[in-house]
Structures are given as structure tokens and as C-alpha cells.
Amino acid sequence: MDKTDISKAQTRVKDDAEPVLLGELENYVGFHLRLAQSASFKAFRRLTGESSLRPGWFAVLAIIHHNPGITPMALSRASGRDKSTITPVLRELLHEELVRRSTNPADKRSYALFLTPAGEEKLAHLAACAAEHDRELDEIVGDKKQEMIRLLRRIVAVLD
């Protein structure tokens, strides 16, 4: 490409109807994991009918439900989120009064997390939607579900 071709390429506006070239992204597993995660969350949000639903709420509520009194640090590890991303989620859930916190007698620097009755109700609704969503995903992956879960767990175990 000479300077004239480069200049034309840099000033050309790509029409929205034109296919977008992905280049090396086409073969990156991580890129496709991100697209799949995004599509999955959009579909889950549509099922819930809650446009304000934030990513991770269901998982965080479920983990707190199954581990009443869990600390934010343990919740962070269990949900695969670091402190910088779990803190805003907890702040939102506390603000929505879906979660409450209590002092942790074993460690005054931390606190214990519990679902409120509204949190239990929200979790029940989200769990029903998650079950329906998982059935849809089962249809997509078919008999490869266990293999897919195994590979996803392996990615987590090796990279985390």
C-alpha cells in the first residue's frame, strides 16, 4: 500500500451495512468467549424482563443465599470477581435492599452478607429465569454441554 492508498483507507467511512472484518480476532477464543458472554447476558436480561438488571447480580445473590454470612472477600473469590468489581455490585444490592450486612464478630474490619426477604424474592425470580435460559443454552450446545463446562472450568483453573 502506498501513501495514497493508506490515506484513502484512513479517511473512508465504513457503512453500517458492510461486514466488519475481525482480522486476527476471528480465531481468538477469548474474543468469542466475550461475545458469547455478552449475548448470553442480553438473552438472560430479556427473560427476566428487567432492563436494569446488572451482570453478576444473579450469581452474587445465589452465592450469598447458599452461604449466609459470607464475607465480601470470600464472595469475591467464589464469584470470580476482584474487589474493584464486587464492591460496586454489593453497593447496588445494598442500595436496592436485596442484601444486608452485619458486623463480623470474627473480624471487625469485615462484615457478613445476608439476603433480605426482597433479595430472596428477587433470587427466586432470577433462578426461574436462569433455569429457562440454561434450557435454551442446552439446546444450543446439545450433547456437548459437559465437555463445554469442562473446557470452561479448565480455562478458569489454568488462567486464574
Explain how this protein is built.
β1 (99-103) and β2 (111-115) form a beta hairpin. The mean pLDDT is 91. The chain contains seven helices and two strands. It has a domain at 52-160: Arc Repressor Mutant, subunit A (Orthogonal Bundle). By secondary structure, the chain is mostly helical. The protein has a two-stranded antiparallel sheet. The radius of gyration is 21 Å and the shape is elongated.
List keywords for this structure.
160 residues, mainly alpha, Arc Repressor Mutant, subunit A
Concise account of the structure shown:
It holds the Pfam family MarR. InterPro entries: HTH_MarR-typ, MarR/SlyA-like, WH-like_DNA-bd_sf, WH_DNA-bd_sf. This protein has 160 residues and is mainly alpha-helical.
Which helices and strands occur, and which strands form pairs?
Elements: H1 3-11, H2 29-48, H3 57-66, H4 72-79, H5 83-95, E1 99-103, E2 111-115, H6 117-141, H7 145-159
Antiparallel strand pairs: 1-2
Helix pairs in contact: 2-6, 3-6, 4-5
